[in-house]
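Researcher: Go.
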Amino acid sequence: MTSEPLPVGRLGATSIDCPDPAELADFYGALLGMRRLVETPDGGVVAITDGAAILAMMRVDPYVAPTWPAGARPQQMHLDVSVDDLDRAVDAAEHLGARQAAEQAQPSLWRVMLDPAGHPFCLTTVGAG
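Model: Structure:
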């Protein structure tokens, strides 16, 4: 019988590059119901948590937003946010500072949004409930 290898560690946080970590932490904190966990003295890193997951925003200068769905600066990762009602979630995300992406491949299942720094993320009913 072959045993699975032991992990080296566990995922500590997901980090997102941005121009203003505090602003993006406030946005995702409100969107996901997370609170501030830590902030470096220079404000270059702000991490938020819901008690289980940690999302960290890291200042990059100069920051260049990704293009979506293709282009010179393609996305390298994105978050899927599970929701019960897509239209209500889109309205709430826009109120927080997000905007809908121009291209929507399957808007009945996923709404592609852009956060205040331009990162794509999806609101989806897949996995909700």
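Model: The first strand starts at residue 14 and ends at 18.
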